[in-house]
Automatic annotation (TrEMBL), chain A:
Matching Gene3D superfamilies: MetI-like
Stated family: Belongs to the binding-protein-dependent transport system permease family. CysTW subfamily.
Pfam families in the record: BPD_transp_1
Domain ABC transmembrane type-1 positions: 116-323
Name under which the protein is recorded: ABC transporter permease
Cellular localisation: Cell membrane
Lineage of source species: Bacteria, Pseudomonadati, Pseudomonadota, Alphaproteobacteria, Hyphomicrobiales
Keyword Cell membrane included in the entry's annotation: yes
TM region positions: 43-67, 115-138, 144-163, 203-222, 259-280, 306-327
Keyword hit for Membrane: yes
InterPro entries, sorted: MetI-like (IPR000515), MetI-like_sf (IPR035906)
Main location: membrane
Organism: Ancylobacter crimeensis
Record's keyword terms, sorted: Cell membrane, Membrane, Transmembrane, Transmembrane helix, Transport
Membrane topology: Multi-pass membrane protein
From TrEMBL, chain B:
Pfam families xref list: ABC_tran (PF00005), TOBE_2 (PF08402)
Keywords: ATP-binding, Nucleotide-binding, Transport
Name of this chain's protein: ABC transporter ATP-binding protein
Domain ABC transporter: 5-235
Keyword Transport found: yes
TrEMBL record, chain C:
Residues of the ABC transmembrane type-1 domain: 66-260
Naturally occurring in which organism (per UniProt): Ancylobacter crimeensis
Main location: membrane
Pfam families xrefs: BPD_transp_1 (PF00528)
Lipid bilayer topology: Multi-pass membrane protein
Subcellular location: Cell membrane
Sequence similarity: Belongs to the binding-protein-dependent transport system permease family. CysTW subfamily.
Keywords: Cell membrane, Membrane, Transmembrane, Transmembrane helix, Transport
UniProt entry tagged with the keyword Transport: yes
The protein, known as: ABC transporter permease
Segments passing through the bilayer: 12-34, 70-90, 102-125, 145-164, 185-207, 241-263
């Protein structure tokens, strides 16, 4: 295993070194103008910048991710055998995800595969649902709300924003459980004879997820629409454009980065949600993240857990790339 | 006494772009020196080279006789007043002015004393505790000057500091700057694209174009004796007419132009046969009479301004020529559409070689 | 005109439903915190009680978790704000061609699911600390701070970057020109300019750290924070003590938001007053009597 780690540490450091040397070379050739890094910041500040960013980029971001990739391709071994002859690259963890066995490929691992695609599919639906719920309010706040009302609205939005994810899920549990408020009201009103099992059939989970990440959608949307010049809408209206036309061809194209960034965030958070499935999921609930969690802390199979995490990460990357493609945006435009 | 600032073969290039080409110049102590040129001519680059924000690609900058190579902006005896003033918004007026002293480790009481004096000098004694955002444009201007003067630089560099002010205040500040310079007696190096500013304030002016210092001299010589076509047309209004020299002798020459032969001074001694330009100031052109050089054209536009009347006329080639008629000279003002006959004396025409690039 | 009324009415309904959806569950939960039954319920309201808050305070695990969470929050602020600041400054200086790559690297944690960040952090540091003999570093709190710092630093960077992009570099040059050293320029000019953004970043970093669950649950190892204790409690069974905790957190948030709002209004007022003073000075200048400057 130590061999893997050396590789993991050495590769990015080498890449960075080569980049620095290249820029040195270019500077010497005069292709880069202006003062050098330390000349511009002074030695003390320059050192702080280099160390802080270097530590962050390498030790907190890149190296852990690479270590996880490395681990996902290794067999589960007791510590004594790590780095030994049995510590070789293998696809068995990924094989397990697909076939439920590290060696056989006879049967598909439907439980995990289904959970994975269900998580992804439901997350996409939740993303679209939240976009639809939030867009009108975001537009109203950004374009037509008077200042005083805007402040109140923002305040009302910010408060639930900082309530913990677990507590938000818990609130839904209070609301939807068989002895919860909704069931009691429905039964008390004579509409039901027996409580509906919202949690057992995953309605609670999906609602909770949509609820939990509602605000991740509204703020990017609001920021993007706010920068649209109101005159553009007025002009379109003067030209006789119907309201849906204005939204589809004036507001939405302008708000593209906000829509993309809200969608990316909601999708990522919901596909990677752990608290809501734990709190709101029924015994038969399928969600991918808790399965990843169990690989680590129930099965104690870290390599397998790393592989599962990577599969999830891969799905998120594909989603981000798809959104970028669809909206023809660069990453810099959505991550703000 | 060593020169205040000396530039020796200074070149500044950014990649392929030459911002300053072979600048050689000596600025004397106590001088009010201006760099005049259109935007992008390299004057700001040159100023930033003197204050060490840009290192010259080649050449030497000397301040007070000392080579400044490798000496950073915080170690040079210069102070720069930025175009946008660059006052520190999070500091009070007094803290702004005292900043240079603070980083030099001047003790607080000494610093306070000096700041107080400077505040009195700039007529803002009651404003020390205010934030910069509470001042008017003119007041900010003075604070910027006081902040630069507080560190007692041997050279004060000013990068178009008046450009943000409106006209009336700008004219007031011209006089004030000149007065301050006289009082403190240090070298001022002033950057501007406004010839009026340069002419009214400076002891000497360097006219720059496309990275090259084209001419150095006092205001009068730059205006009256331009040595390049650029200087002739950039400093003051001027009419330029192209042609070929037919004869040249005794410091004058006659140019064959599409609107007839025109005679003027030939200070550089261009020989017959050369392509050349003849420059005639609008105020040198006279209506009617029978001067040695003359041409005809149609009046297009007549603007009466009391003491002066501006006339734009179109000659046969379609070129537009402007005239400034003194109030006394014009008995009857021309009307648009009139055919005019104008002329000038040989000493008012100036022949210069045509620049190759045009 | 009729269309306008219909539109307005339907929008009002939408707005009402939206906030009912957003705040309703929290309100219901809040009410249940004051109701006597053991199970969080709103209706029937059997009697007002504050017992659940008392239960909360006497819950040793919860209090321990709270202390750990606060401690981690402070450490994350101390790590993430300086890193975010450095990250933002480097972003403005890095050569254009390297910028996209750099941006991708440092912003990627924002778009990565929290569980994955937690997993990768422990995976890497478990090996790294073993290999380098720094096993004492492999600790729940340290791991959590490192894991959370990856994306919280990115938040901080984005906040600081937004303000940094409005920074006028000539101010740095002015300070240098007046004789300041590079560290002095940084301390006297850049930091004061960035102060509001640094403050916002610190608040955001603390709150994000405090409420984080996904990353923390992996990186906390054997230790516990408020959120991990809470998750355990919620899974075991539902008690109104959890509602009480929520009420408490909402109350703190509301108070914080209100304080922020008041501070912002005051600051706005101050800026407006300064502008008025400046406008008055400007007027005096134009009225044709500029104060005589060179009083000799």
């Amino acid at each position: 295993m130590s061999g893997g780690l050396t590789l993991v540490v050495a590769l990015p450091l080498l890449a960075a070194l080569i980049l620095i040397l290249l820029s040195r070379l270019e500077r010497r050739k005069g292709a880069i103008a202006g003062p050098g890094f330390f000349q511009r910041n002074g030695v003390a500040v320059g050192l702080y910048l280099a160390v802080a960013v270097g530590f962050w980029a390498f030790f907190i971001i890149v190296l852990p991710q690479l270590a996880m990739v490395d681990l996902s391709f290794r067999p589960k071994l007791p510590p004594s055998q790590m780095g030994g002859p049995k510590d070789i690259f293998t696809l068995e963890n990924y094989r397990y995800f697909l076939f439920g066995s590290t060696t056989s490929t006879a049967n598909w691992n439907w439980l995990h595969i289904k959970a994975f695609f269900l998580s992804i599919g439901v997350s996409i639906l939740i993303t679209l649902l939240n976009l639809a719920i939030c867009y009108p309010l975001a537009f109203h706040m950004a374009q037509s709300a008077p200042v005083a009302r805007l402040r109140v609205l923002l305040l009302l939005l910010i408060i639930p924003y900082w309530v913990n994810e677990i507590l938000r899920a818990f609130a839904f549990r209070v609301l939807l459980s068989s002895g919860g408020v909704v069931n009691k009201l429905l039964m008390g009103g004579g509409l039901l004879d027996a409580p509906i099992d919202f949690l057992g059939n995953d309605v609670g989970l999906y609602m909770g997820l949509s609820y939990a990440y509602l605000l991740m959608m509204i703020f990017p949307l609001y920021n993007a629409i706010e920068s649209l010049d109101r005159n553009q809408i007025e002009a379109a209206r003067d030209l006789g454009a119907p309201w849906w036309h204005i939204h589809a061809f004036v507001v939405m194209p302008h708000a593209k980065p906000g829509i993309a960034s809200g969608c990316t965030l909601v999708f990522m958070l919901s596909a990677g949600a752990l608290a809501a499935p734990l709190v709101l999921g029924g015994p038969r609930t399928l969600w991918f993240t808790p399965i990843v969690y169990d690989r680590f802390y129930q099965a104690f199979n870290w390599p397998q857990g790393a592989a599962y995490a990577l599969i999830l990460l891969f799905a998120c990357i594909v989603f981000v790339l798809a959104v970028l493609r669809m909206f023809r945006l660069s990453l810099g435009e959505i991550a703000r | 006494m060593a020169a205040a600032v000396e530039l020796e073969g200074v070149n500044v290039t950014f990649g392929d772009f030459v911002a300053v080409r072979d600048a050689n110049l000596t600025i004397e102590p106590g001088e009010f020196f201006s760099f005049l040129g259109p935007s992008g001519c390299g004057k700001t680059t040159l100023l930033r080279t003197i204050s060490a924000f840009i290192e010259p690609t080649r050449g030497t900058v000397r301040i007070g006789g000392r080579d400044m190579k490798g000496i950073g902006p915080n170690k040079r005896p210069t102070a720069l007043i930025f175009q946008n003033l660059a006052l520190f918004p999070m500091m009070t007026v007094a803290e702004n002015i005292g900043y240079g002293l603070r980083v030099r480790g001047v003790p607080r009481h000494e610093r306070d004393e000096k700041v107080k004096n400077l505040l009195i000098q700039i007529a803002l004694p009651e404003h020390g505790h205010k934030l910069v955002s509470e001042l008017s444009g003119g007041q900010r201007q003075r604070v910027a000057i006081a902040r630069a003067l507080a560190v007692e630089p041997s050279v004060l560099l000013l990068d178009e500091p008046l450009s943000a002010l409106d006209l009336k205040l700008r004219q007031h500040m011209r006089a004030e700057l000149r007065a301050i310079q006289k009082r403190v007696g240090i070298t001022f190096i002033y950057i501007t694209h406004d010839q009026g500013e340069a002419l009214t304030m400076s002891d000497r002016i360097a006219v720059m174009n496309a990275g090259v210092i084209e001419q150095v001299g006092n205001g009068r010589s730059v205006y009256a004796e331009p040595r390049t076509p650029f200087v002739a047309s950039f400093v003051g209004e001027n009419n330029a007419i192209r042609g070929r020299i037919t004869q040249a002798a005794n410091g004058t020459a006659t140019l064959d132009t599409p609107i007839g032969p025109l005679t003027g001074r030939n200070p550089v001694g261009l020989p017959a046969g050369d392509e050349a330009l003849i420059f005639v100031r609008p105020e040198a052109l006279k209506l009617g009479g029978d001067p040695p050089s003359g041409f005809e054209g149609e009046a297009l536009d007549v603007t009466y301004e009391g003491s002066i009347t501006h006339v734009t006329m179109r000659v046969r080639t379609g070129q537009k020529i402007t005239l400034s008629l003194g109030g006394g000279a014009a008995g009857i003002l021309p009307q648009p559409g009139d055919m005019l006959k104008v002329g000038f004396e040989p000493q008012d025409g100036l022949l210069l070689a045509r620049p190759e690039r045009s | 005109m009729r269309e306008g009324i219909v539109q307005r009415f339907s929008f009002a309904v939408y707005l009402g439903l939206f906030f009912l959806y957003l705040l309703g569950p929290l309100a219901v939960m809040a009410v249940s915190a004051f109701n006597t039954p053991d199970y969080p319920q709103v209706w029937p309201f059997e009697g007002f009680t504050l017992d659940w808050f008392g239960k909360l305070l006497s819950d040793g695990d919860m209090m321990y978790g709270l202390r750990t969470s606060l401690w981690i929050g402070v450490l994350v602020v101390l790590v993430s704000v300086p890193i975010g600041l450095a990250g933002a400054i480097v972003m403005t200086q890095i050569p254009v061609r390297a910028r996209a790559t750099y941006y991708l690297v440092v912003v990627s944690p924002v778009l990565t699911p929290g569980v994955i960040i937690g997993i990768s952090t422990v995976v890497f540091w478990r090996e790294f600390t073993t290999l380098t003999g720094m096993k004492f570093m492999y600790d729940g709190i340290v791991m959590t701070v490192l894991g959370q710092a990856s994306f919280i630093s990115a938040y901080c960077m984005l906040i600081i970057l937004a303000r940094l992009q409005r920074f006028d570099r000539s101010q740095e040059e002015a300070a240098l020109d007046l004789g300041a050293s590079y560290p002095q320029v940084f301390l006297h000019v850049l930091l004061p300019f960035l102060k509001p953004a640094l403050f916002s970043a610190a608040v955001l970093a603390f709150l994000s750290s405090f409420e984080n669950y996904n990353t923390t649950t992996f990186s906390i190892l054997a230790d516990k924070t408020l959120t991990t204790v809470l998750a355990g409690r919620v899974r075991q069974g539902t008690t109104p003590a959890i509602s009480a905790l929520a009420v408490f957190i909402v109350a703190v948030t509301v108070a914080g938001a209100l304080v922020y709002e008041v501070m912002k209004r005051r600051e706005d007022g101050r800026i407006r007053r300064r502008q008025q003073v400046a406008a008055k000075a400007e007027e005096a200048e134009f009225s044709g009597t500029p104060e005589p400057a060179a009083a000799e």
